[in-house]
Amino acid sequence: MASSSDLREKLRKKRRALQQTLQVKDDVDTDTQALVPTDKKQSKERGQTTMEELTAGEEEPGDTLRRNLKAQRQKRKKMLEKASTDDTPDDSVVEPHDETVVEVTAVQQISHDDDKPEKPDIVSSPTHSQRGDLPPRPQAKPAPSSSHSESSTMRQRMRDKLRAARSKAESLLQQEASLEAPASRLQSLRDRDTLTRFDRETEPDLRAGRDDHTSPLNTKVKFRETVRRVRIESISETGLPTAEEAYNFFTFNFDPEPHEEAGKGRKKRRPRTEGENDDEEEEEEAVTEVDREQKGENEERDEDAPLVKDEEEDLFIIDQSAHDFLVVKRAEYMGYQRRLQSENDFLFTPSFLTVPASSKVPENMQPRYLEEEGLYVGERPPISLTNQNILENRVLKQQQGRKWFGDDGRIIALPDPIKESSTRPPLFHMEEDLDPALQTVYRKALKSKHASQYIAGGGGTNGDYQLDVDVSGLIFSHHPLFSREHVLGARLAQLYDQHLSRQHKNITEHLTTKLNGLRNAVRNMLEIHGRQGLTPVMQQRISEYKQEVKNTRRLRDTEQEKDRTLLKSIIKVWKEIKALRDFQRFTNTPYKLYLRREEGVRASDERDHEAEIQAEVDELQGEMEEDYQKKVTEYKRQQEEWKAWRRKRKAKEKKKKKKAQSQDDDDDEDNDDDQSEGDTELGPSKPDPPEEPDMEGVEEQVREKASRIRRKPGEPILMPELTASGPITPNEQCPRGEFARREDVAKRYLFTKVLYNNKEVSRTDNRSLNSDFRVHFGQIFNLKIVNWPESIKLQVFEVLGSSTSLLAEVFVPVPESSVLTGSAPSEELEFSSNLRVMFDHEAVGSDVPFSFEADGSNRQTLLTSGKLSCCVSWAIGEDDVPLAPPTTQSKAMHSGLKQLDAIACIGASSLNDMKKLGEWATESRLDPNDPNNATIMQLLKVASSGEVTAPDYFRLEQLQEEFNFLSEEEIERSRRFRLLRLRNQEVAEFRNYKCVPALEREVTDKVFQEYERRLREGEIVDTKDHLDAHRALVAKYLQKIRESVINRFLIAKHHFLLSDLVQEEEVPSIGILGLNLFKLAEPKRPLKPQRKERKKVTAQNLSDGDIRLLLNIIRAYDIPIRKPQASKPAVASKSVRSFTETFTAGQSSQSAIQGSDWLLNQVQVRPFVEVSFQRTVLQTTTADGPNPCWNEDLQLPFSAPNGDYSTASLQSVKDEVFINIFDEVHYELGGDGEDRGREVHTRLEKHWLGSVKIPFSTIYFQSRIDGTFKVDTPPVLLGYSKERSLASDGGYDAVRSLSEGAFITLFITIEPQLVPGETVREKFDSQEGERLLLASEVFERDAAVSYPNRPCLTTVIDINGKTVFISRYLRPLNPPQELLDAFPNSPQEATELIARYVSLIPSMPDSVSFAGVCDLWSTCDQFLTLLAGDEEEHAVLLCNYFLSMGKKAWLIIGSAIPEGPTAYVLTYEQSRYLIWNPSSGQYYGQYDSFCPLQTVGCLVSADNVWFNVQVYTSPLRMSFDVTKAKLWKPFFSRAFPNPGLSSVQPEELVYQRTDKAVAAELQDRVEKILKEKIMEWRPRHPTRWNRYCTSTLRHFLPKLELSGGRDVADEHRLELQSLLGDYRISGFPLHLPFSEVRPIIEAVYSTGVHNVEASNVEFALAVHVHAYPNNVLSVWVYLASLIRTR
Amino acid sequence: MAINNPSVFLLMINGQIEGANFPEYDDLYCKYCFVYGHDWAPTSGLEEGISQITSKGRDSPQRMIWNFPLEITFKSTNPLGWPQIVVSVYGPDTFGNDVVRGYGATHIPFTPGQHTRTIPMFVPESTSRLQKFTSWLLGRRPEFTDPKVVAQGEGREVTRVRSQGFVSLSFHIVTKDMKRLGYDTTPSETSHTLSHTAAAGIGPGDQPYST
């Protein structure tokens, strides 16, 4: 009860709220709403909605209402249960019981006061409160009664009533008590609610009908329950709703009160099925309920009528109830069990138990097994038992489930369709064994010719084209079944047709008039001007006219003759027909010819005739006269000629006679005679005088002709008239032959097929052949076409019985698109067939000779022929749009795109040749005023006027102008386009320009400034960076060359090789494969591991940090060792040095002393290696001693310029790897006073000992550098001395042992290994002979094949990009004279000096300057001008100098470390070979193990090239004797001698003297710059310069230069030491060739002198620039740091 | 100001690499990257990516699905160098080596809206039979040095390729300010219909002449 009170409370609140909201609403609105609940309720009960009355606005309340209802209903149900159990705990009252009670009350109420059924809204008993929300019932009541009456009989209803009454009585007795409580509760609630306005209004009613208003609703709700139950029962029995139920179900929607009916219907049915047993109603509660319900309802219905009248009232109150529906409620929870239950109502889970056979076969039947009866039963497809059971259960659940089962109680199944064996026999045979019948034959797919020729013009209009083919009829001009008469008749008709058409045209008349006109014109002309006054023009015209008259007359005559013959033949044929008819005694054809005769006036006729004849005679006579005159003149002329000739001849004859008399005739005269005799024979015969014209004859002729072709005067004009009105003899009267023929004709049928593009599209009906051999079809075919019409063909077929034969094919021209249906004339198309047909009856047959004559003569043969009249035209659409494709397209289809001229556009599609048309028009003298010719004249006019003439020139890119993006000037003017174009041209400044602005105005001029300046200042030299005007110029020039080469390279870069694009593993050769196989047997960890080749990486997909430089610093030799400060060894002064002395171990004494020093002082050196690259500095640990061993790996990161890792960019990296060797020096500093002794302060200093520079490009190209290099040590190293090897063999051998300086063993590589750039694969043009080029190619190829590792060079590329044979570069050239003069007595010294001079020319690898291109060889003068070049240039220059000095010198093409492929110079002197490194000026003996040259590929002299074919390539182990063909393969041999190549070098080199002042200036500037730089590098420390030391050093530098950098250290040190005793000094001179300042700065920086951070450090810097001829400058930088020791 | 006078236009690409059709291969994955001209810059999104490995489904044995989303926005000043997407597909061969199964590229559609593209894929061919055999044996088939090669025409004449399968992509394109900068990429539907009506308009004119 507690819950019910809660609920009540809630309800109350809710209702109050609702009422408040509703007060503002007007009544009308609520009235309409009032309808909703009823509908809603009904629809809900059926699970459907009828909302027809609802407006859109009312939809919402309806929905909420429904929801509320549902919720409330369930609550109420619970309540009910609870209430009932509470009230009557002992009573096992079940739900239906309770309902009965309610129902009873309802019945009572209704009987009490029917007027107020709407009260339930306000009822507030626990059971009723929910119901209060429900809409009132009565409203809906009336309707069902009507519909209801249809299905239920009166009797039934009566019985229901009876039943209801009975149960009512029972339940009343039982349940009276239980009703009490709700009633009282209801009362209390009622009282409270009277406050609201609505309540007030309805209060009286409510009070009165307090009890009864619940009843209808209650009943209804209950009813629903019962219905459900009933339904479940019925379903469980029948499985499916009956048709009636279904009907009801659906009709409820539209019926205001359908459920009642349904319930009734169901109820009615049930009793029937149960055997009409009334007493059984108690057996099932549900049934009773329904019955009771029914009863109540019946009663209710009885009350319905008055209720309806009170509708307004009802609605008003329902309103209120509507507000009640808007209740916020808790979410509904449906218990699990309940849900299961409800789900069970919907869901069905088929059991997988076996279904008993009984349920599968019809009742009372035993399963029948066909198999057992001996019938064949196929094997069923296998299926698992479980699945089968499930299926069977499921099927059985359906209504007619049993039909799926067969007689044997199993599901009907077809036998397993899968065959055990394949039906197609397998073909085991090979193809050739295959039966030829089974062989597949390839047939090429045939493409329909026209299939693809769709009419263009957009997809939308496809199929809108329509051709109308009108086949109207057929007329045979001859048919095999023609009788003779028909033949004649056809002929007659034909002639008559001709006659008609001629008459229509009336050419004769036309010509006659024309003739008369012309005659008049001539006459007029003659009369007006008279004979005399005729101008030549006039005469010309007259003669023209006369000619015209003549022609016209001739034409007229022929026409007249034709007319006449036609008439004659018509009459003749007609006569023949008549004769034939008479002969055969029957008539076959209806033709009848009438001849109308017109009598003319005889007199005028005769006159005309005469006049005509006269005129003609006159004309003819005139003509003849004229002709005669002409002939006469001609005759006279000939006569004259003849006479002249005659005279001549006579004279000759006379002469001849004379000559014959004289016997001394010579041959010449004989010849003359012969000639003259010949002349006589050839001479003209005597002309005959022309005959006089026969004037009388003329008249005769004219008259005769006139009588032949013209009707005689007075003769009547005959007008033939052919009619087809004659009677035809009926069949019965005909002889048998004719009859048979007619029968045959009747049997024939004809039809026509229409073929479009050779495809039959339609055909006409069969039409019988008439006796007049005309067939009328009259059918129009509308062809919707998609394909372009290529051909339209009509085929005429003749049907005889069942056989069909093709008579003829007629091609119909495709109409112009202007030919439209309705306007197109019907065309008659002639056809014929050469079919041979013979008959045994009267018919003449076809292709069979026959005769009209009785005797069979005059036979003729006729072929079947006829005329088909048809019309093809384009259809017209609904809105008068022609359904024809556009003309232009048809043009295009016919003739392609070649006719893109104006004429095609006009539409004169078939008149392409305007010129011809024009010619024809002028020739035929078209009358321009004739309206018939108007179109042609118009066309001609158009065609001949300028604008549309087809151009007589050919335009290559037509419409180019129209398609131009912008005009040329505009493009030129636009900055943006300029930018885009420059970028596209890959101009350096813009090559990688990102994001060109979208708008013109955003492109500022700044962008171009740099570029324009470069262009402008191309010639202006900027000396700021270069310190030297000449260098600047050279730099500019070099830049230019570089650019041009780079441009060439950029072009070449766009050529790709497969390897550029595709990565592919190399095919392992057999050898490698074998090795690999062999490797398998190898131990896994060999004792001697070998380096594996790394994978190469293409540069482009790399980024910063990917590339590292790996350095393995292994060891060094001969590092200079420290010298004790105190020791002052006495060294012999070597102020004078001789060449030989240099090579002797002149310092043995010194080394001895040194050795002792070393032993004594134990002074060592503690070297470490510092590697700097791209300003990254790494160092090794410190090792001990002059021959340290580090064996350390250093990794340096590499970053490409601008992050561009393309090959080209990598190649042009100019960075160098500096490998510096330092000595680490510890200095103990005395601590401050007190700490001394306890603390030791040590300062570390590093002293530069030497360096090795390796350009990155070298590493990049070599990919690894491995070897021992000479460390570039300064000539003087203050505080250090060198430990020397003691070997001294004297002479050139000493060179080896003496090889000064330290050595370092290194291994350098790039990780990952980069693919070095390919050289340009461009074929350079050349001025060399073809044969030479070919030979060099062969030579190089052979060399590459047999010795792949030996460089072979026969042709090189000069600076202009042309291929030049290498030996052309060698030619003796004079070295600077002053160098030669320097050592006049010592050729060896001079040689050295010259080598030094060459080495002082700055070296610039081509690979850097001409990134990735190739070696460009410049000639010596170019080289000296540029003052920059590769090893080759140096070598060539050096070699040329040596040659000029009379030495035997060769160019060595080989490879060295670290340079890689390079060029050295070989000289032969003092029976030894010397190898010169041109870049350093060093020379080595052949057997010098420290010689950097590793491989010798070939030797080049001025006249030949030799390739090394020896076993070894190292100079140590080979012979340089080029005369031995076994060892050296010459290029020019006896087979191919040197053609005498001239040199490309100049005759002589001209040297400029270098201005000493310039050198001095440069010296100052360099010194200044360097000082500034050093101070800059020491930003945190003051940099003090020791002037005294500096001046000393400066003083010393020229000596060094003079000595060629040779060791003057001791001397010098002594000197210094004396001066600077108090200082600990460390320093060294640097020697560089001068190119730019930057390398000098770099070199200074790399020594790290500036890094000394001691507070009391001082520096000394001195620069000396020595000028050699031709601006070759040698720069010395002396750098020292001084630390005061005291 | 910026709105009225844009200096760049934006191209936003949403889409996905839907799947592939490689009749003979299975367990494939794909990489994609964009290739675009100098005037283009991606403003957001991933320029390249690598997908999961997909296997063929049982029900559609030819189709492999990645549904690998693409999302990137470019800005540009110039339609030159319009972005292209390069898709390369890799998968294991019979020996389990990862080999390339196809390269393909297509331009990003330039009209706004939804587009689907099916790219035919190809791989470079070995230069010789022997190469082919060894590459098959060693599982090192020829590959393009850079997949971006397939987006450019230069130098392609030196390669020989074999086609293998298809990859289908779908794009949803949004552009901004294209029209403002004068690049009208919307389809000329309207002009098309116009021309049609114009063509039809000639018809009635002819009519009186012919009737």
Automatic annotation (TrEMBL), chain B:
Region of interest called Disordered, as start-end residue ranges on this chain: 184-211
Gene Ontology, cellular component aspect: MKS complex
Subcellular location: Cytoplasm, Cytoskeleton, Cilium basal body
Top-rank taxon: Eukaryota
GO BP term (any one): cilium assembly
Pfam families associated with the record: B9-C2 (PF07162)
Stored PANTHER family: B9 DOMAIN-CONTAINING (PTHR12968), B9 DOMAIN-CONTAINING PROTEIN 1 (PTHR12968:SF1)
Subunit structure: Part of the tectonic-like complex (also named B9 complex).
Assigned protein family: Belongs to the B9D family.
Function recorded in the entry: Component of the tectonic-like complex, a complex localized at the transition zone of primary cilia and acting as a barrier that prevents diffusion of transmembrane proteins between the cilia and plasma membranes. Required for ciliogenesis and sonic hedgehog/SHH signaling.
The protein's name in its UniProt record: B9 domain-containing protein 1
